[in-house]
Design a protein that fits this description.
The complex is a heterodimer of chains A (about 200) and B (about 325).
Chain A (H helix, E strand, L loop, with lengths): L3 E6 L8 H10 L11 E7 L6 E7 L8 H5 L5 E3 L5 E3 L9 H5 L6 E3 L1 H11 L9 E3 L5 H5 L5 H5 L5 E5 L6 H8 L2 E3 L10 E4 L7
Chain B lengths: L5 E3 L6 H26 L4 H24 L8 H4 L3 H4 L4 H25 L2 H5 L3 H6 L1 H12 L1 H24 L11 H26 L5 H29 L4 H10 L3 H24 L6 H23 L3 E3 L2
Antiparallel strand pairs in B: 1-2
Membrane topology (chain B): Multi-pass membrane protein
Keywords (chain B): Cell membrane, Membrane, Transmembrane, Transmembrane helix
GO cellular component, one term (chain B): plasma membrane
C-alpha cells in the first residue's frame, strides 16, 4: 500500500514562490484572482536584531481524517487509498462547507466566471469544464506518471520533499519517523500528511 | 511553530448563511409548534395554516439564500436525492436538505384538509382549482385520516431542521466558537424562542381571537423559559471562551467588544424581551403592545445571534 506525504523544511525555504508558479501552471489554477493551491506565507518573526523572515509554504494536508470530506454533502470530496484527498468537479455544488471546515485554508472556489477566464488564460489546453471548489491533489496525475508533484520538483532549496510513508527505506519517510518533522495542529484530530521541520530551534 | 500563529475570521459564509440558518430554524420551529398545538392543545385551522405556510415560505427563502450562492446550481441535484444520506451520513447539509424537503412535504399534507375549509384558500386563484382535482381531495381525506402520523412526521423533520442549523456550524473543527456542543443547543433553543415570538406576533396582530388566550399565555411562558435557557447558554459560552483555546478567546474579544452583540443581541434581543415577558407572566399587561414589542425584539435578536456567531468564528493558522 502507498501512503503519500510531504515534508517541508522551513529552514531551507527561501520564499522564491517557484512552487506556487509551478503548481499554478501545472494545475491551471485561477491566478488572476490571486488564488493558489499552494501558497508561501512571508512573515517577520521576532524584533530588533533577532528579527528574521520565515517563509511558510502551505497546501492541502491530505488528512487521514479530513473534515472537508465529512462535511461535503454530495460526496464530491473523497479520499483515495493512497491518502490523496480530491474533489470530483461533477459532484461538487460549491456550497463551500469544505472551505469552512478546513483548518489549513486549503480550499478555494472556482466560479462560472473563472471557468470562462480560464479558457482565455490557458487556451485550448484548459481542462476544467465547470465550477467547483478546488484544492491540491499532490499532482496525482504526475505521480501516476512516475514524477514528483510540481511544487516538489521545482523547489530550489529542496524545502519540499515527497515520500511514501509505507516505504521504510525512503529517506524522507525516515525524517517523519524520527519526529523531526511534525504535522500542523494535530490536536484537531485531522491527522494530516504534510509535515514541517521547524526552523525556530536553530535560531537564537 | 506555535509562536507564529495568526488569527483570522472568515468571509466565506457571511450574512446570507446567517439568514439561511435563521429562517431555517424559525420556519421549522414555527411549523412544529403549530402542529403540536393543533394536535394536543386545540384544533386550530388558522394557526396551522399560518404555521405551515410561513414555515414553508421561510424555509424556501432560506434555502434560496444557500442555493443562490452555490458555485454550480445544477449539481444541487445530488443533495436533493434522499439516497445521499446513505453515502454521506456524516454531512449535515445532506441531512438538513432532507429534513427541509420532508418537513415541507408533510407540512403541506397536514395543512391540506384545513385549506379546504379556509375561505382564503377557497378563493385563492389557482390553488382553489388544484384543490378541486379529485386526487388532491383524496390526499386531503387521507391526511385527515392519518392526521397525527402526518403531524408527527412534519414535527420530527421540523425539529430536525432546527437542530441541524446548529450541528452544521458545529461541524467545523478549526473554530472553537463553533466546534462545541453548545452551538446546536443554542441554535435549537433560539429557533424555538423565535418561533414562539413569531406565533405570539401572529396571534396578537393577525389571528387575534379572544378564545386563544390560553394558547398565548402558554406560548409566553414557554418563551420566557426558552429565553432564560438561552441566557444561561450565552453565559456558559462566555465562561467557555474566556479561558483555554486561543481561538475561543479571540472570538470572545471580538464579541464582547461589539455593541451589536452586547446591546443588540444580549440587551435588546434577550434581556429586554425577557423582562417584558416576565412582567406579563407575573402581573400581566393591560395592552398587548409590550408582548408584541418583545416578540419583535426576539425576532431581530434571533438573526443577530446567527450573524455574530458566523462573523466571529476565529481560525488559528500556524503561519
Amino acid at each position: 500500500m502507498t501512503r503519500y506525504a510531504m515534508v517541508i523544511d522551513l529552514n531551507t525555504c527561501v520564499g522564491c514562490n517557484a512552487c506556487m508558479a509551478a503548481c499554478a501552471m501545472e494545475n491551471q489554477t485561477e491566478v488572476w484572482n490571486d488564488v493558489w493551491r499552494t501558497y508561501v506565507h512571508d512573515k517577520e518573526i521576532g524584533t530588533g536584531e533577532y528579527a528574521h523572515r520565515r517563509f511558510f509554504p502551505r497546501l492541502c494536508n491530505h488528512c487521514d481524517n479530513p473534515p472537508c470530506m465529512s462535511v461535503c454533502p454530495t460526496g464530491a470530496t473523497y479520499r483515495l487509498d493512497n491518502g490523496i484527498v480530491k474533489v470530483d468537479q461533477a459532484l461538487c455544488m460549491g456550497c463551500r462547507a469544505c472551505a469552512m471546515a478546513c483548518p489549513y485554508d486549503a480550499r478555494h472556489e472556482v466560479t462560472y466566471a473563472d471557468v470562462r477566464t480560464g479558457r482565455e488564460f490557458y487556451g485550448s489546453d484548459y481542462r476544467r469544464t465547470r465550477p467547483s471548489m478546488d484544492k491540491c491533489t499532490f499532482c496525482d496525475h504526475r505521480l501516476a506518471a512516475g514524477q514528483q508533484p510540481a511544487c516538489v520538483e521545482t523547489c530550489v532549496g529542496s524545502a519540499r520533499m515527497f515520500c511514501d510513508l509505507d516505504d521504510p527505506d525512503d529517506p524522507v519517510t525516515r525524517i517523519v519517523e524520527s519526529g523531526v518533522a511534525r504535522p500542523l495542529m494535530p490536536h484537531l484530530g485531522t491527522r494530516p500528511n504534510v509535515y514541517y521541520i521547524d526552523d525556530m530551534k536553530r535560531r537564537g | 511553530m506555535d509562536v507564529t500563529m495568526s488569527y483570522a475570521t472568515q468571509d466565506i459564509w457571511t450574512w446570507w448563511i446567517a439568514i439561511y440558518l435563521y429562517f431555517g430554524g424559525l420556519g421549522a420551529a414555527t411549523l412544529a409548534v403549530t402542529f403540536l398545538t393543533d394536535m394536543y392543545l386545540k384544533p386550530h385551522r388558522d394557526l396551522v395554516l399560518w404555521g405551515a405556510w410561513s414555515g414553508i415560505v421561510l424555509l424556501a427563502l432560506g434555502s434560496l439564500m444557500l442555493f443562490g450562492h452555490l458555485l454550480d446550481h445544477v449539481a444541487v441535484i445530488h443533495v436533493l436525492n434522499p439516497l445521499v444520506l446513505f453515502y454521506q451520513p456524516h454531512a449535515w447539509i445532506a441531512w438538513g436538505t432532507q429534513f427541509i424537503i420532508w418537513m415541507m412535504f408533510w407540512g403541506v399534507l397536514y395543512a391540506l384538509p384545513y385549506m379546504y375549509i379556509s375561505p382564503f384558500f377557497q378563493k385563492l386563484w389557482g390553488v382553489n382549482r388544484v384543490m378541486d382535482w379529485g386526487w388532491v381531495q383524496k390526499i386531503a381525506e387521507l391526511s385527515t385520516r392519518y392526521r397525527k402520523f402526518i403531524g408527527w412526521m412534519a414535527t420530527i423533520n421540523g425539529v430536525g431542521v432546527a437542530v441541524y442549523t446548529g450541528l452544521l456550524v458545529q461541524s467545523f473543527p478549526a473554530v472553537a466558537l463553533w466546534h462545541n456542543p453548545g452551538i446546536p443547543l443554542l441554535f435549537t433553543v433560539s429557533a424555538f424562542s423565535t418561533a414562539m415570538a413569531f406565533l405570539l406576533l401572529l396571534m396578537y396582530v393577525v389571528i387575534h381571537d379572544a378564545a386563544d388566550d390560553h394558547i398565548r399565555v402558554l406560548y409566553e411562558r414557554i418563551d420566557l423559559v426558552l429565553i432564560s435557557v438561552e441566557l444561561v447558554i450565552i453565559f456558559s459560552f462566555y465562561q467557555f471562551m474566556s479561558s483555554g483555546d486561543e481561538s475561543a478567546m479571540r472570538s470572545l474579544q471580538l464579541l464582547w467588544n461589539d455593541l451589536g452583540w452586547l446591546i443588540g443581541f444580549i440587551g435588546f434581543g434577550l434581556v429586554v424581551p425577557f423582562l417584558l415577558e416576565l412582567r406579563g407572566v407575573l402581573k400581566g399587561w393591560t395592552s398587548h403592545v409590550p408582548i408584541v414589542a418583545a416578540s419583535l425584539l426576539i425576532l431581530v435578536g434571533g438573526y443577530l445571534l446567527r450573524h455574530y456567531i458566523m462573523y466571529n468564528g476565529v481560525y488559528a493558522y500556524p503561519w
